[in-house]
């Protein structure tokens, strides 16, 4: 991979050059891979699917080296973007960067957003898997692959579950469930296995009639789909709809 784009800087030999004069570029130190480190983190999680500690739930070791590399690259892009905008602003009468440098500015901005998305997705996916491992009662075996903040998250999550259990008077261990506790409201689910539904409409406990086909998503009462979630015929989709 090449080094990051240069940033415009006046030549030391120039004296108040006109706005149309070409300026000499100053290189930003560091190598920018335009989201490659973030992509590598996500591919690492993808490769670990289905090969882990429990049925489809795996947590690879926290890749601090790649995370730090992605953060460093993100910082370089932000620095390059800010420097380029500031150094070219005076070249335009209206204070906006000239047309000739806008593609480079857009590229820097896109690289920043891509790195942010990759880093957020990496950490959110790991937190989701830690919760799943908790309900599979396998989080102890995976703790060696967690970073200190993730272990702290697990401890706090366990306290929340215990507090929820105590406040609702639930007598059984919630960890015996294959999915996290859900509110008595609607949740979004996807059909994974439709063999038992015969392709026709079925009437749920609440009286709602619905056709469940493989791959279809539905927004239903949790009490209506709890049995199918446990059997694996449906899967719970994460998101704000399930809060």
Automatic annotation (TrEMBL):
InterPro entries linked: GINS_A, GINS_bundle-like_dom_sf, GINS_Psf1
Record has Nucleus as a keyword: yes
Cellular compartments annotated: Nucleus
GO BP terms: DNA strand elongation involved in mitotic DNA replication
Compositional bias (Low complexity): 10-21
Keyword annotations from UniProtKB, A to Z: DNA replication, Nucleus
Source organism superkingdom: Eukaryota
Cellular component terms (Gene Ontology): GINS complex
Region of interest: Disordered: 1-21
Domain GINS subunit: 111-165
Pfam families recorded: Sld5
Keyword match Nucleus: yes
PANTHER family in UniProt: DNA REPLICATION COMPLEX GINS PROTEIN PSF1 (PTHR12914:SF2), PARTNER OF SLD5 (PTHR12914)
Protein family: Belongs to the GINS1/PSF1 family.
Protein name in the entry: GINS subunit domain-containing protein
């Amino acid at each position: 991979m090449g080094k990051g784009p240069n940033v415009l800087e006046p030549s030391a030999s120039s004296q108040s050059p006109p706005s149309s004069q070409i300026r000499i570029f100053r290189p930003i130190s560091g190598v920018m891979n335009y989201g490659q480190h973030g992509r590598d983190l996500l591919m690492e999680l993808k490769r670990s699917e289905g090969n882990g500690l429990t049925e489809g739930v795996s947590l690879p070791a926290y890749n601090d080296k790649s995370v730090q590399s992605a953060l460093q690259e993100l910082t370089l892009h932000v620095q390059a973007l800010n420097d380029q905008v500031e150094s070219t602003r005076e070249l335009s009468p209206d204070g906006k960067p000239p047309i000739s440098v806008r593609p480079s500015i857009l590229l820097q901005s896109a690289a920043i957003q891509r790195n942010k998305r990759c880093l957020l997705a990496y950490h959110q996916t790991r937190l989701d898997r830690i919760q799943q491992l908790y309900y599979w009662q396998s989080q102890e075996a995976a703790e060696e692959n967690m970073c200190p903040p993730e272990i702290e998250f697990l401890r706090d999550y366990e306290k929340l579950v215990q507090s929820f259990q105590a406040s609702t008077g639930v007598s059984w261990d919630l960890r015996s469930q294959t999915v996290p506790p859900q509110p008595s409201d609607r949740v979004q689910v996807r059909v994974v296995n439709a063999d038992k539904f015969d392709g026709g409409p079925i009437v749920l406990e609440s009286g709602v009639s619905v056709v469940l086909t493989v791959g279809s998503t539905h927004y239903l009462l949790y009490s209506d789909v709890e049995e199918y979630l446990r059997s694996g015929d449906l899967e719970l989709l994460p998101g704000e709809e399930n809060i």
